[in-house]
Amino acid sequence: MALVLAVVNQKGGVGKTTTAVNLAASLAAQEKRVLLVDLDPQGNASSGVGIGRDQGERPTIYHALLGERDARAAILPTEVPHLFVLPSGTDLVGAELELVAVDARENRLRSALDPLRSGYDFILIDCPPSLGLLTINALVAADRVLVPLQCEYYALEGLGSLLRTIDLVRANLNRDLQLEGVVLTMFDARNNLARQVMKDVQSNLPGQVYATVIPRNVRLSEAPSHGRPVILYDIESKGAQSYLALAEELLGRHHAGTTDEEKAAGPRPQASGPRPQAAGPRPHASGQKRSAPTR
């Protein structure tokens, strides 16, 4: 059953889509089946894996949200093995207005994705840079929220309102929603403010900030223009290595969580009764028992 991660930040330009695309590709590089859902009308996650925003007559996430087509019909393969995309489209721009009059409008994405969960290990949702109805749909559909946070003051200010929104969604629409963690992006170690923001986030959210930090990197900025995740564009770059490390850290966290759950469940029950013993001593080739050696 897939773990559904909503990659959310209402502030634009913080590395949200870059994180969604490259974390999805890095998880796929670990031979995990990954579905990248592009819920942003800008369609940058789709183009970031080589899928054009104009899909013509092909179904997209828009048609799945409105119940016009099954989401499975819209899924496309990518250049990365094990990575698939549910693309955005030009129609998604007006989806929030169209959903206002729809019953159970906050649950449309969850209804579209639930039948897909058994076919993937991870589903990553790239959300628009707002806290509108599309993002609420992502939070209702998700198990956990991953927050990319640029190491700047204004980005830190917006984190509080996002956490309050997560609390509201948990209280009213999705009681199982949890914060997966915060990923610090666009980090420049030479910048005093970046280091201070890192300290503030780590002190306010102990244990919820990923140890892997994504640096500012030219290759990360160039890769989308080629329609490729950075691990295909330049796997030796610092940006690619950082996202591969982030994927390993995420997998390590969830493996550790599974192990803890197994420990809490206690030891496996043993078969009742004593084990059967072999009947008599084992005969030798001659058919005689071996005699005890004489001293």
List the helices and strands and how they pair.
Layout: E1 3-7, H1 16-29, E2 34-38, H2 44-48, H3 61-65, E3 76-77, E4 83-86, H4 95-99, H5 108-113, E5 122-126, H6 133-141, E6 144-150, H7 153-172, E7 178-185, H8 192-204, H9 218-222, H10 230-233, H11 238-264
Parallel strand pairs: 1-5, 1-6, 2-4, 2-5, 6-7
Antiparallel strand pairs: 3-4
List how many beta strands DSSP finds.
Answer: 7
SS content category: alpha/beta
Largest sheet at a glance? 7 strands, mixed
Radius of gyration equals 25 Å
- In CATH, the architecture is 3-Layer(aba) Sandwich
Detailed description of the structure:
By secondary structure, the protein is of the alpha/beta class. The chain has helices at residues 16-29, 44-48, 61-65, 95-99, 108-113, 133-141, 153-172, 192-204, 218-222, 230-233, 238-264, and strands spanning 3-7, 34-38, 76-77, 83-86, 122-126, 144-150, 178-185. Strands 3-4-2-5-1-6-7 form a seven-stranded mixed sheet, with helices on both faces. Helix 1 (16-29) packs across helix 11 (238-264). The longest helix is centred in the C-terminal third of the chain and has 27 residues, at 238-264. The chain starts with a strand and ends in a 31-residue tail after the last helix. The model is unreliable at 268-295 (pLDDT under 50).
